[in-house]
Design goal:
The chain is an alpha+beta fold. Helix content is 27%, strand content 21%.
């Protein structure tokens, strides 16, 4: 016979079972999904996977995913990555670093200390030599314990060495070779499967045996766009989960899917570089004229809502020891332009006659650069200098940069160093110059005298992403200096996208 007690127990059992099932389903929905694929965007077409020559934001993003460094930064702390421990500095002029055992390249070969040595020696011989600081030589040895070590011989003690060895430029490639798109062998969490110019896409796959653990994502597609509307359509249609511009390109309405966004610090430098089409391009006074003629206030609304900080220095405001006014260079300096032109007119009469004509080249895969070039052209026209803007594909743009067959170009420099002195050296490096000055003060003086490039502004990266995407954050950087690129190691999907 069924009693009231029996019914009560049965009812409680059914309720308990229902709650168990519901909680089980909820926890399943809340767990990260492995093996998923997402699509995002790049700020421009990537051209190089070589850590040594990283210059643009897209290059930095891809290099940071395909290759690893000896150390990484977490908050204010340097932590071992390819290294197994912090440097042994018992002898400050002969620093020893033990290599983490068992690390594999994407082709299955074991990482050796010699790979590290060759990679860093190639960097030391490049125009980015300054990332190696006081290093005189690097060699690989095998300790008595059988552990492979890298020994750095220094000309002076360098307490910054481990920080420098966390910089993306110090990434390790197989045998230290220059990576290509077809042969990009690194130890990173992803490896390149394909780069398609036709589809404007780089496709990456997760490395199954990455020593830090496999990523949640199985595949990652990163695309570039020649105009903001195509990126917006991709995001709105649901064919991309991440966008640098998409969700705010349609003014006055919400994106189709529930969207979140994060913004980096303003550390991506837009600048003007100079070629060799005519002797005037190599005159420091002429480059100073260009800088003084430009009113940077008109560039504060460039982009798609990210922070724009006008600057006459390549060093981001936040990393300068002495804060500079954000009003610097906002308006043209008529008196300085007039003074400098008077000193150049005897050698270049075209400046006085108003017959000087310049070619300014821009990269078509960065949609904002043509508008930036137009503002530069308008500023120079006010002083009698005519400028013809030529928009080139990314590959054609890179070829012209190598030849120097132009007058001015709009460039981008993402310097990942936390040291202002290295950022200044990087500004000289992109102009093909190698500076001997060591102190920060002397580097600033040299920059203000030579104008190897003309800084325009620093911008942040504003990333929009769907609500079902979790773990979206910028790669860590040292101390208060925020990273400017996404780290995809922890990104994962949870649940289904919600529509607005």
């Amino acid at each position: 016979m069924v009693t009231k007690l029996t019914l009560a127990i049965a009812t409680l059992a059914m309720m308990w079972a229902a709650m168990w099932t519901a909680s089980g389903d909820a926890s399943a929905e809340g767990r990260p999904k492995y093996g998923s694929s997402i699509t995002g965007t790049l700020l421009e077409e990537p051209l190089s996977l070589d850590p040594v020559s990283v210059r643009t934001h897209s290059d930095l993003v891809l290099v940071s995913m395909v290759f690893d460094t000896l150390y990484r930064i977490k908050g204010d702390v340097v932590v071992p990555h390819l290294a197994s421990a912090l440097p042994d500095e018992s002898d400050p002029l002969h620093v020893r670093i033990s290599l983490r055992p068992g690390v594999l390249f994407s082709n299955g070969r074991k990482l050796k200390a010699d790979d590290v040595v060759r990679s860093l020696e190639r960097l030391r011989r490049s125009n980015r030599y300054f990332y190696m600081g006081a290093v005189v030589s690097i060699e690989s040895v095998v300790a008595d314990t059988g552990v492979e070590e890298i020994v750095f011989t220094l000309r002076r003690a360098d307490p910054r060495l481990s920080i420098r060895l966390s910089d993306v430029h110090t990434s390790v490639s197989a045998q230290g070779r220059v990576p290509t798109w077809r042969r990009a062998i690194g130890t990173g969490p992803f490896h390149v499967v394909e780069r398609s110019s036709a589809r404007r896409e780089v496709r990456l796959k997760a490395s199954e045996k990455h020593f830090a653990g496999r990523t949640y994502l199985d595949e990652l597609k990163l695309r570039w766009h020649d105009d903001k509307s195509s990126e917006a359509r991709q995001y709105e249609s649901g064919s991309a989960q991440l966008s640098s511009r998409g969700s705010i390109a349609f003014a006055g309405h919400q994106p189709k899917y529930r969207t979140k966004n994060i913004q980096s610090r303003a550390r991506i430098l837009t600048y003007l570089g100079f070629g060799k089409a005519q002797p005037l391009d190599q005159e420091a006074e002429f480059r100073a004229i260009v800088s003084a003629a430009i009113g940077r206030a008109g560039m504060m609304k460039m982009g798609s809502g990210e922070e724009i900080v006008p600057s006459t220095s390549p060093v981001p405001t936040e990393t300068q020891r002495r804060r500079v006014s954000r009003k610097a260079g906002l308006t043209p300096d008529l008196q300085r332009v007039t003074t400098l032109m008077k000193s150049l007119i005897p050698r270049y009469p075209a400046l006085k006659l108003g017959s000087l004509s310049l070619e300014l080249i821009v990269n078509s895969s960065r949609p904002d650069d043509a508008a930036i070039g137009a503002k530069v052209a308008a500023a120079l026209f006010a002083f009698g200098i005519r400028t013809r803007i030529v928009s080139l594909s990314a590959s054609a743009f890179a070829r012209r940069l190598r030849t120097g067959a132009y007058d001015i170009y709009v460039g981008q420099l993402v310097d990942s160093s936390v040291f202002a002195s290295d950022t200044l050296r990087a500004a000289f490096a992109v102009s093909g110059q190698r500076v001997v000055a060591n102190s920060l003060a002397s580097l600033k003086t040299r920059f203000e005298r030579d104008y190897p490039i003309v800084p325009l502004f620093h911008r942040s990266l504003r990333v929009h992403y769907r609500g079902d995407l979790q773990g979206v954050r910028f790669a860590p950087h040292f101390g208060a200096v925020g990273g400017t690129w996404l780290g995809f190691d922890d990104i994962h999907l949870i649940g289904e996208p919600e529509k607005n």
